[in-house]
Amino acid sequence: MKNKYLIILLLLTNTVYAADSLVCKISVTASYFTADALSDIYYINQHNEIVKTHCGSGDLFTYSNKNLGRPVSIDASNPMKVLVFYPDQQTIVILNNQLAELSALQLRGNISVQNFQPSAICKHTGTDHIWMYDELSRKLFRLDETGNQLASSEAFDQLFTEPIEVETLYSANDKVFISSKNSGVLVFDAYANFEKTIPVTFDVQQVTANYIIGIDLQALQFFEFSNQEIYNYPITGTSARLIGKSVFVQNQDSITIYDLGER
Starting at the edge strand that comes first in sequence, how are the strands of the sheet with 194-198 ordered? Predict the structure, then answer.
């Protein structure tokens, strides 16, 4: 019922945001941002630093490793083990809740270890396992934190008749979802077996237990798993995350939080 109420609320909203729905706004320039279940915000700034902040509290923690090059994504689904992906050095860094480095997973091979060229990663729901799409083998892999392979898909060239351009990975409901430029969202089970394609056309931002969330033509869009329908919520932004009843919206120079709760 709560999910239905949220959808009804979204459909009934005719303005971008009511003034009283504004929770907080921070002025930041970020190449990437996300948020965790505690409403902490993580972003990559212009100095390639990882910053953790909380709206109204200022910057809490930062992390930087210039030896690894440019970070491109952050997975904070487990705020005690935050994943940061550095594709230049084929490395995933795992940080604690104060952004201190716990470990680093090097995916560049050697004479005795397989070489990977990962293009996207995410954490598997409710575990410490990591999903990775490898450009070299054109396969999806599930790894533990030390890099041991737990599952792998067939090569995408064998699975699909058309080339797949992988953009991002998400995990929810014990599955992994692959957002692609040309083929919608591909769904795989926990053992990397392909299940189906969801033909959404918006720019996917997030996958939750109930929705695929994206942005298209300046509208926040919700694809609901239960009824396979898409609902729109007017929004202006380049990226967004839904955390509980709050939506976090990124623009060119800010991240703003709006309340989508009861009114």
Answer: 166-172, 175-180, 185-188, 194-198
- CA distances (Å), 144 to each of 2, 63, 67, 85, in order? 35, 23, 24, 15
Distance in angstroms (rounded) separating the CA atoms of residues 39 and 55:
8
How many structural domains comprise the chain? 1
d(CA 121, CA 143): 10
Would you call 172 helix, strand, or coil by DSSP? strand
| CB-based contact 224:210 (threshold 8 Å) | yes
Q: Categorise residue 84: left if φ over 0, alpha if ψ from -120 to 50, beta otherwise.
A: beta
| DSSP-assigned letter for residue 181 | S
When pLDDT is averaged across residues 171-187 and rounded to a whole number, the result is 95
Distance between CA atoms of 134 and 145, rounded to whole angstroms? Answer: 16
State the first-to-last Cα distance of the chain, in angstroms, to the nearest integer: 16
| pLDDT beyond 70 at 258 | yes
Stretch 99-124: mean pLDDT, rounded?
90
Give me the residue label for tokens 């997975």.
Answer: 75
Can you give the residue range of the structural domain that contains 97? 2-110+119-259
CATH number of the structural domain spanning residue 74: 2.120.10.30
User: Helix (H, G, I), strand (E, B), or coil: what is residue 166?
Assistant: strand
Amino acid at 7: I
Q: Is the dihedral of CA 254, 259, 260, 263 positive or negative?
A: negative
Reported as a single tens digit per residue, the pLDDT across 42-73 is: 999 999 999 999 988 888 899 999 999 999 99
Better-scored residue on pLDDT, 112 or 199: 199
Picking from 106, 104, 132, 105, the residue whose alpha carbon sits closest to that of residue 118 is 132
Residue 74: which pLDDT band, with cuts at 50, 70 and 90?
Answer: very high
